[in-house]
Amino acid sequence: MDTTSPNYSVKVVQYFVIASLIWAVAGMIIGVILAAQLYWPVLNLDSEYFQFGRLRPLHTSGVIYGFVVNILMGTSLYIAQRTGKCELYNKSLAWMVFWGWQLVLLLALITLPLGYTTSKEYAELEWPIDILIVLVWVLYAVLFFGTLAKRNVSHIFVANWFFGAFIIVIAMIFIVNNLAMPASLMKSYSVFAGAQDAIVQWWWGHNAVGFLLTAGVIGMNYYFIPKVSERPIYSYRLSIIHFWGLVGFYTWAGTHHLIYSSVPVWVQNIGIVMSLILWLPSWGGAFNSAMTLLQNKEKLKTDYIMLFFFSAILYYCLATFEGPLLAIRWFNMVAHNTEWVIGHVHSGALGWVGMSGIAVFYYFIPRLWGKTDLWSPRLIKWHFWLAHAGVAIYAIALWVAGIGEGYMWLSQSDNGELIYSFVEAMNFKAPWLFLRFFGGALFVLGLLLMTVNLYKTVRMPSALVTKEA
After folding, report:
1. 166: pLDDT strictly greater than 60
2. Rounded CA gap, 235 and 38, in Å?
3. What is the number of other CB atoms lying within 10 angstroms of the CB of residue 373?
4. What detail does the entry give on cofactor binding (predicted)?
């Protein structure tokens, strides 16, 4: 075993984390603009480049590929070094991954508003950019697994298991779902068609949530939650069960998006059953993280970073309850394609992923720059309450809008005619769409306060850190 002190690579991690913060703010501001456009259509500005259909994939790609992937790449490389007590596999390769990924995001920023899209959910980017994504992802995989191979300890910490699954599964499903025949430089057609295309798309779409927004973030949290709570993981054995539960069942659940479709019923049933089974590992992992925080109850009462993590866990429980609920046929009949689904997605995206990312930003960024404290503890309190008010207003508004909308769509007179017109359904949900905009604006206002706080923190005079990140 190498007993010399490793020369950890921190600068590239700093770049990934700052890029993540920038994309979090930009992507969610676009989300607020979209919410405003739904309530005030005039805000589309009669522009083909600024209308909802062009901006919506830019919002999802900015948040998923910009905010989340950047923070996962940065923290995974940091955690692999720290837990393995080793240096990065190749520092030049790390910078290639960073700049390669930023090039992907820049190309998305240019092409999506111009209308170049495959029209596939969470996979809208056209084939030349897809090839670049695959190349950068392979370099990232080599870098991450190469670093694990260099580790100076025999044990592989559980966070790295989740990161490894995130890298492997996303690579596999992204490549298969994006198999296409190019028709021109910026237009291609999927090799799949009809029901087959739908199955492959939701195998990708749901597992992009499962292994990028869930497994990757869980891996990050399994490192930082013990750090911030100053306690070990409550049950390391349960964390391993959590891992294998997600790997074993999540990959099968995507077809619950295709209930009441032309997809074979047995394929739909697999999605339903696997979605219901997912309750167990999901809530088991949430219990493990919550108990890790609760081991230090005194600190939890006053530490807002811990409270952000605790809130993320609660929203994880909520999102992983709603998902299986939506997979049940009778509820799917009412809620599918309504605003409820958007509320479900954002209770997970803002509540689980957003709160987790915020907590990591607050804990990690000061330590990466050698600071002991935040510039303003008061601003983090304001952010905490703005974020929670924002998510609650957003989610509750869309739950009400979704159930009402679904009920109105299904209501029929005795002779089978629809009782409510499309316009009546739109008028019903209009005030709830305003609350959606208002809740999202509160959440973004909190992000802006965080950005100011962290910028001022980094700019403070240097001080020695009492505990390493």
Report:
1. yes
2. 45
3. 10
4. Binds 1 copper ion per subunit, denoted as copper B. Binds 2 heme groups per subunit, denoted as high- and low-spin.
Judge whether 336 is annotated as a binding position. Answer: no
Residue type, 40: W
Asked whether residue 332 carries a pLDDT value surpassing 90, the answer given is yes
Distances (CA, A) of 174 to 61, 203, 362, 468: 14, 10, 31, 36
Residue 280 predicted with pLDDT over 50: yes
Residue by residue, what is the 3-state secondary structure of 337-374? Answer: CCHHHHHHHHHHHHHHHHHHHHHHHHHHHHHHCCCCCC
Rounded Cα distance, 109 and 74, in Å: 21
Q: What are phi and psi of 194, to 5 degrees?
A: 60, -140
Q: What is the token pair recorded at 436?
A: 């959606």
The model's confidence at residue 465, banded by pLDDT at 50, 70 and 90, is very low
Q: How far apart are CA 23 and CA 65, in angstroms?
A: 9
Rounded CA separation 80/147 (Å): 7
DSSP state of 187: E
**Binning pLDDT at 50, 70 and 90, where does residue 460 land?**
confident
Burial class (CB in 10 A: 0-12, 13-18, 19+), 109: middle
Query: Among residues of the chain, what percentage have pLDDT more than 90?
Result: 95
Tokens of 41: 């259509």
Average pLDDT score over the chain: 94
Known binder of ligand: residue 242?
Answer: no
User: CA-to-CA distance for 199 and 382, rounded, in angstroms?
Assistant: 44
Q: Is a pLDDT exceeding 80 seen at residue 212? A: yes
What gap in Å lies between CA 187 and CA 349, rounded to an integer?
A: 30
Instruction: Please give the single-letter amino acid code of residue 99.
Output: W
What secondary structure letter does DSSP report for 125? S
Structure tokens at 345: 């997605």
Q: What are phi and psi of 230, to 5 degrees?
A: 60, 35
- How far is the C-alpha of 218 from the C-alpha of 163, rounded, in Å? 9
CA distance 383 to 225: 19
- The radius of gyration computed from the CA coordinates of the chain, to the nearest angstrom, equals 22
| Count of alpha carbons within 13 angstroms of residue 6, beta-carbon side | 21
pLDDT greater than 80 at residue 462: no
Q: What is the pLDDT of residues 60-75, one digit of tens each?
A: 999 999 999 999 999 9
Q: What angle do CA 23, 451, 358 make, to 5 degrees?
A: 70
CATH for 8-191 (3.90.1170.10, 3.40.50.2300, 3.10.20.90, 1.20.210.10): 1.20.210.10
Domain ranges of the chain: 8-191
Tokens of 115: 């209308």
Which H or E run contains 184? strand 180-184
Give every CB contact of residue 242 below 8 A, 6+ residues apart in sequence: 218, 281, 284, 285, 288
Looking up tokens 């009462």 gives 301
Q: Is 206 annotated as a binding residue?
A: yes
